[in-house]
Amino acid sequence: MTTLTKTEDASAPTGPESFLSVRDLKVTFSTEDGPVKAVDGLSFDVQRGKTLGIVGESGSGKSVTNLTILGLHSPRTTTVDGEIVMDGKELITASEKELEQLRGNKMAMIFQDPLTALSPFYTVGRQLSEPFMKHRGASKKEAKDRAIEMLTKVGIPQPKTRFDDYPHQFSGGMRQRAMIAMALMCDPDLLIADEPTTALDVTVQAQILDLLKDLQQEFGSAIIFITHDLGVISQMADDLLVMYAGRAVERGSAREVMSTPKHPYTWGLLSSMPRLDSNLDEALEPIPGAPPSLLTPPDGCRFHPRCAYTDLVPGNQCSTTRPPLGDGRASACHLTAEQKQTLFIDKIQPRLR
């Protein structure tokens, strides 16, 4: 049964009034092996017309967070605590009927795999039209005109003809464009993009990213962009949240986090990225080990079993005490500010040049 409570997160972000505000979010799944803490005390803000990037390895809680915002979790197996407020509306305590009025209307999602997100039994045009008729009370003709307009806007060739095609008749890039068109049919205030370019070649990927930026400028939507690709996020995001094992470990403007990261996990992500100007014989430096099981996560900092710098922190704090994230530009790490700066300059920055 879903538990609904509101809590105050002392380390909540500060800044201008947010369109979307998430505070101390906890999402726990009930399984046969025990509770899985998929998200554990997450807080962030998203402003109108801005893009928040969320990065992290698979299993870090990125997609779970955003499916929870949309209310797409099973109340029988999921416990949700905390607060999610969108434009003054509390979403965790909202009824399913209220959420249905918001999904596809005020908030929408671009899923990672459009082939599974789109129904194979209905034409693309029908799948675009139905939400518009439901939420806007439009006629079939009005909905078709709107769908053709959106297919044109996202760059689908011959949109009047492709309106009657099925998803399998579209290429991968065209299906992703159709998913974007569907998400934007009702001019949503919040758009969640869950790794929308993962399966696309680099040319189509660049086109999709440019398209999202252009559409955001036109519609003024707040965007949450989920990815594991820091190269992509550097092009898209205004602000950046780095997640590890269900927790936020670093946040700040995308420029700050990419240029002067402060958490060892972010250092590892950046150091493991291939660079166009690097020597082809130069080996990448992967993060050692693997993310922890969220059935039995480690105490203290969840990254400490994989961190190379725990011996610099006195008193075993890394393995016993959870480091706070703090306000504004921050990282959840027990290293001092001086240690972080010295380590970054001496060990990390030379790898990123």
Automatic annotation (TrEMBL):
It is found in: Cell membrane. One of its GO terms (molecular function) is ATP binding. The keyword Metal-binding does not apply. Gene3D superfamilies: P-loop containing nucleotide triphosphate hydrolases. InterPro entries: AAA+_ATPase, ABC_Ni/Peptide_Import, ABC_transporter-like_ATP-bd, ABC_transporter-like_CS, Oligopep_ABC_C, P-loop_NTPase. It is a peripheral membrane protein. It comes from the Bacteria. Residues 22-270 form the ABC transporter domain. Keywords: ATP-binding, Cell membrane, Membrane, Nucleotide-binding, Transport. Belongs to the ABC transporter superfamily. PANTHER family: DIPEPTIDE TRANSPORT ATP-BINDING PROTEIN DPPD, OLIGOPEPTIDE TRANSPORT ATP-BINDING PROTEIN APPD. This is ABC transporter ATP-binding protein. It comes from Streptomyces actuosus.
